[in-house]
Every structure is written in structure tokens, then in C-alpha cells.
Batch of 2 targets.
Target 1
Amino acid sequence: MSYFPTEDRDGTIIITLTNGERNTLHPALLEEGIAALQTLAKNPPENGIVLTGAGEHFTCGMDTKIAATLDKTGQKQAAAAIDAFAAALHRLPCAVVVALNGNTIGAGGIMALAADWIVAAQGDYKIGLPEAKAGLPFPPVPQAILDHWLDPVWRRRLALSSHLLTPIEALSAGLADELADPAQLLDKAVACAQELAAQPGFKACKRQLRAKANAEIDAILAS
């Protein structure tokens, strides 16, 4: 069973992060995701990509039970996998929309910031970056994504306080671009991806917009 099953909806590829009740992340899952994203980067779908989570959560971040069993080598490998996954998502040349269907915690927030547009379902759930509370400092690539795509004031507030936001609050913070009825979330996200992709200059503008961030990410991964 894949952690990242896909569906083709009118030329838009929907990727659904699928791992138990909370869609937590671990090294094997991340490695599968890296391979899937790199494959899509080589042959990007013309109508873009939508990334969402299965069930009631987008992702609750790293699997703390698995993380607790890792020795120093395993911890380094896990951090490298997070870096490579975030880089692969950020580098996708096509339109990428995330559809936040529930709790979006830690690495989930980084995944959202790596996308071109964030559609969040209306509802009673949280979005945030509680790495300080979890005792897990940001790896270098997620930190670069934060530095480039989250307003400095909100970056300070969220990274240092571990405060979690409601979907409405996330709109003000830049961790969501629009809200959608949960029943219409995927339809809205697909429509957004297709609207972005339909612009003649979208890929060129995205390439320009991300050039500095991608160069920084390339330097991190090469070091």
C-alpha cells in the first residue's frame, strides 16, 4: 500500500498523504514521497497537483514514537529525508495546491508553505509550527522555506511560541490563502490548480519567484 496514492482528475494529479489516523511522517514514508515528487517533476501534469491528507487530518507532523527510537545516525537520516522531501515539493515546476482537510502540524505547515496556493477546509482544527514545544528544531530546508514564504512577524510568533491557529487565523498569518466548505475542498483545490496552470506565464513566473529560494535549498543539500 502506498503512502501517497494518486488520482488523475481532469489532468490534475491529486496526491493523498495516507498513514493511519493522523497521517504522521517517518523516514520510509518520506523516501516514498521524495521519489513520487521527483517523478512528477520530470513529467509535470499540465493541470497541476493537489496535495491533501486522508481522513480527518492533513498531517500531524513527524511520528514521535518512531522518532524516539532513532539513534543519532537515524536522526540525521530522518532530518535529511525531511530536507529532501521539502525540497522536492518546493521545486515542482507546475502549479501545486495544498488542500488542508484537518490538523496541519509541524512539517505539515512547511508542506503548505512550499505550495503555490493553500486552500483550508472550514472547521475546528489547528494549523501551526510547534517545533519548539516538540523539541525538534527546523531542519535547514524547512527553515529556508519559512524564511522565504512566511511573513517575518508571523514567523517569529509561530516558531517561538508554538501557537496553533484556527483556519480563519491562518488566513491572516499566511498559512492559508482561502477557506472552503469541507465537502467542496478537493473540488475547490483542483479548480485552483487548474486556474493557476491555465495562465500562459505561470511556470515562468513561478521559476522566477522561486529562484533565490531554490538556489539556497540547492546549496543546503550540496553542503
Note: The chain has a mean pLDDT of 96.
Target 2
Amino acid sequence: MLHPVGPLPAAVYWRRRLTVLVVLLVVLGGASWLAVSLVAGPRAGGAAATGTAEPAELPALERVVPTVSELRTPATAPAPAPAAPAPVGDPAPAGPTPGGPCTDDMLGLEVRTPGQVAVGTKPTFELVVVNTASVPCVRALDKQLQELVMVDAARTRVWGSNDCFPESSSDQRTLAPGEAVVFPIVWGGLTSEPTCTAPRVNPAPGEYVLRGRLDTKVSGDAPIVLG
């Protein structure tokens, strides 16, 4: 084997053996390279695909603290307009108490006259008290609290029912709603003044006015003509 046998010189056979050995090494090297390429190729492709699909992992600080571009300022809703304060008015006045006193605003006061009387006669006038409230109430209707006064066109006092013959009584009454009480008052036909010391005479014919009073409650004017 190491000593070639044949008709040719030994150097020829050694060259042939060396050529075959080189070719064999080249074939084996190419086969090894091809095998390595086939094995390494899928791994490289997988690594490339992985690098494309998955981004590089963020550092720990960037995972915790977002960047400025990632921050979003929440839209601020407009503040609701303040509600208008409810109008504050005076509290409703309490209604009258049933059975309580009749105040002046719970009473109506009226003077009734014949309208026209002859000079020197003794006409009868009427002082009318009415409970205008919706509940019964109590009021003193004493004689000394009642008064009629006559004045002329110049508003000069001519006569008063309590000037010369004042009366007194105790008359505490409970007036039902709408109830009217009538007090007749007779006039002697003569003038008078509060002290009843001035001469009393017949007033001159003309137009006069009567006003009534019940304590602090005052009536409207009632016309009377003397003829």
C-alpha cells in the first residue's frame, strides 16, 4: 500500500494518490459547509423575525415614568354656572287667631245718615261695626269708645256725640266673621264743643260730613245735608 506497484514510476502513483486525497478533502469540506449553512439559516431567520416583531425592552425607569408625549391633559369640563339665589321675601304674615282680639284691620267701621235733614230736627245716625276677618274675634264696644263728629265744608268741628252727654258701658263682644253691630246715636240738632261750655245753636244750612270712631278705629266720611 505504501509502496505502489506497477509499470509506472512510483512518483506517478504518489501524485495520483495526492490528487485523490485533495479532491476528497474538498468534497468533505463542501459537505460540512453546506450542512452548517442549513442548520444556522433557520435560527438566523427566527432571530430576525423576533427582532422585527418584538421591540427592545424599555429600561425600568421608562416603564414606570411615561414620556411627555404620552401624557394627555384631561379635558376640563366647564364649571356649572352658579345657581341664582332664591328670592328672599318677607315671611308670610300669620293669619288671625280664632277667638283673639279684633284688631283695627279686622274691623269695618261705617257711619250711616239719612242723607238730608231739616235744621233744628233731631235725626238718628248709625255707627256700624263689622268683623271683616275670616275668624271670630273679640272687641270692646263700650259706649265711651264710640263717637260721631260733624264738620263743615271748611273742616271746622261743629258737633260731637260725646261733648255734652257722654255715656259709658262695658260691652266686650265676640264678633263672628261678617257679623255687623249697629249703634244708633241721636243728634239733638245743636252745635257743641268738647267742654260743652260754649252756647249751643242750630248750625247753618249746608253740606256737612260725619266721621265715626270706635276707640282707635276711624271710619270714612259720610255726607249729610242740612236744609
Note: The two ends are 188 Å apart (CA to CA).
